[in-house]
Amino acid sequence: FHILLFTERLFEPSSMSEAFYRVWKHCCVSKGLGEPSLKHGVRFDVADEAIGDYVAKWGLDSEMTKGHVKRSKTGYSMTDLLRAYLYTKDKQFSKLWLVYAKAFKGKRQLVWTNGLKSRLLVEEQSDEELATAQVEEAEKFAEFTAEQWQAIYRTDSEFYVLNCVEKNPAGFDDFINKLCKLSAEMAVGRGGRGDVHVARARPTRPNARGREDV
Fold first, then answer.
1. pLDDT in tens, 178-214
2. Can you tell me the distance from the alpha carbon of 148 to that of 178, in angstroms, rounded to the nearest whole number?
3. Triad 186, 151, 140: Cα angle to 5°
4. Which of 1, 78, 89, 122 is the most exposed place for a label (fewest CB within 10 A)?
5. How many CA atoms lie within 13 A of 63 on its CB side?
6. What's 114's DSSP letter?
């Protein structure tokens, strides 16, 4: 997890890392998780130009609240698990998703230190106020079955579906049926290491893949 500190003076990153490491090590050991290394257990960065490129690409707000959507080069994000299950129907992916969902349900993504909001003049809103806040109204056009959404994603057709809704709503059902037929002709498999091969269609002209450029 991440902690964002507001301080009145600068600190040396090395001294802060060592101080936080001692606390973090105690927490890990007391919970039976083993002793983390100083190199990988804690990282302290000053939020200035040194991390400007990183913040520009990801965003400090996302770094603080959206760690669950990040993934490594060889790993899965939580939504990747759902996609993998959609492709393969392998219950291993659905079980992992359920573990995540049960652990995160009702949990806050961001916790403020007591008194910090008032000091920074951040307006407090209750759950009731947030629930009744006006949001942009939308008209529901269609609902997809799991099979239909699988076809849309596997054929790389998200854009074309939205385009069809805007420009040719009368032909929407026929368009979705064509995508389902195209998806059924695509193969799904696993590599030698058990990795799921995501058989999304290669970017080609819509009419070359049985789709109308609507």
1. 999 998 887 555 555 555 454 544 433 344 344 444 3
2. 10
3. 175
4. 1
5. 14
6. T
